[in-house]
Prior knowledge:
Layout: E1 8-14, H1 18-29, H2 32-35, E2 42-49, H3 55-60, E3 67-71, H4 76-86, E4 91-94, E5 100-101, H5 105-115, E6 121-130, E7 133-135, H6 149-152, E8 164-166, H7 168-173, H8 184-193, E9 199-210, H9 216-219, H10 224-235, H11 241-264, H12 268-281
Parallel strand pairs: 1-2, 1-4, 2-3, 6-9
Antiparallel strand pairs: 4-8, 5-9, 6-7, 6-8
Helix pairs in contact: 8-10, 10-11, 11-12
Amino acid sequence: MANGKPLLSVIIPTFNRAQFLREALESVADQSYFNSIPDSFWQLIVVDDGSTDSTLSAVNSFPFRIDYIYIPQSGVSTARNLGLSRAKGEYIAFLDSDDLWKPEKIETQMKYMQDHPATRVCCTEEIWIRRGKFVNPQKKHQKYSGMIFDKVLPLCLLSLSSAMFQCRLFREIGNFDESLPACEDYDLGIRIASRYPMVFLNEPLIIKRGGHPDQLSHRYWGMDRFRVQALEKALNSGLNQEQKRLVKKELKKKYRILIQGAEKRRKFRRAAAFRKRMQHFIPKEDRI
């Protein structure tokens, strides 16, 4: 405990996932690290983003203290930001309510973060389950350590459930972008990687469960349009010249994917809008 405050704040945003949430909470309760410290050394925050199921009952069924916050449905970024506003810990760990932590997850990361106090964010390897079956991540999902700005541009490599952050990082780079209904983790990863190294521990310490219909990737068409929004924003965020070059290169790829997809579906106005945005952000000589 530092200055009478918790050392760690755990933030779980959730929406209509009562059964998943029960299992996620159990994985938090099973953390070896929490068995060796007083309850006052850590804080658990559940932000309920407008659930209409038995989420509150799931929260009330657990014997340890939970700071439960209910809000009208506002989106996962708003929920996470509200959790951050209530967080008192020096370190922050997020857990999506459909994911699980292995028992040694927090202990392993806390030791690393305290042994390396300059580290702003530390992530771990993952175990993936899709529709109840184990799957292997593709090569493009490989994780890296160090200054990895070029690696985070093609797709999101920041798995929030696997990450532990210094709380001050959010004061330095800002919170989640509430204008993005999806790919907010991609946007955050770009902002972090543009300024700081990221640490990857090659140990599978979380279980990511996917394939269910309420996932954001199933709710919205054309996820690249949100990545494009994040990349456009990055160009105006004080990047150096090499970083800007890399962002424009990735933007060009994603614009073309969106334009081709829209034209294939005969959404010609949509294609024209993406083409206009490309003309605005990418110089003519760089569009070849």
